[in-house]
Amino acid sequence: MTAGELRTFIKFGNDRCVISGARQISLCDFEVNVLGGVNGKKSQQVFLMCILNDGVYVCAAFSSLRVTHCFSTLVSNGEKVIYDYDKPGVPVDSCDRQWIVGIIFVRRICLYPKLKI
User: Fold this and answer.
1) What CA–CA distance (Å, rounded) separates 9 from 3?
2) Does residue 108 contact residue 56 with C-beta atoms inside 8 Å?
3) How many CB atoms lie within 10 A of CB 94?
């Protein structure tokens, strides 16, 4: 999944939120790529050591075969926890990150406050 595809999905979801009155995802926060363009053997270490503000992030990385994979990361008090389809919530420092050869993007997901109508 590319950032552009994810942006399109967010816009689609936000349009539906207007109808239902639910909270929308901030595209301004999503547009900022917190960490990206990191390649090489040290990519896992860079991801582990990068300082992120508390919140939820969508991340995309690739393996040595250039197979891309998206996962979410929850940051709370400086601790990063990965959520993936097979990982219900594993701290970053204790999960297998050897497959990460490059980081495409790390983007924050923030919700707008719910509007009172």
Assistant:
1) 10
2) yes
3) 9
Separation CA 29–CA 27 (nearest Å): 5
Nearest to 60 by CA among 51, 49, 71: 71
Does an H or E element contain 57, and which?
strand 55-62
* CA–CA distance, 37 with 31 (Å, rounded to integer): 15
pLDDT above 70 covers a percentage of the chain that reads 94
* Cβ–Cβ < 8 Å for 83, 11: no
Query: Side chain identity at 46, as an amino acid letter?
Result: V
At residue 38, the 3 state secondary structure works out as: strand
Determine the number of helices (DSSP H) and then strands (DSSP E) in the chain: 3, 6
Convert the pLDDT of each residue in 9-53 to its tens digit. Answer: 888 888 887 777 777 888 888 888 888 888 887 888 888 888 999
Please tell me the distance from the alpha carbon of residue 97 to that of residue 17, in angstroms, as a whole number.
Answer: 35
Asked whether 60 and 104 are in contact (CB, 8 A), the reply is yes
Taken in order 11, 78, 34, 99, the sign of the CA dihedral is negative
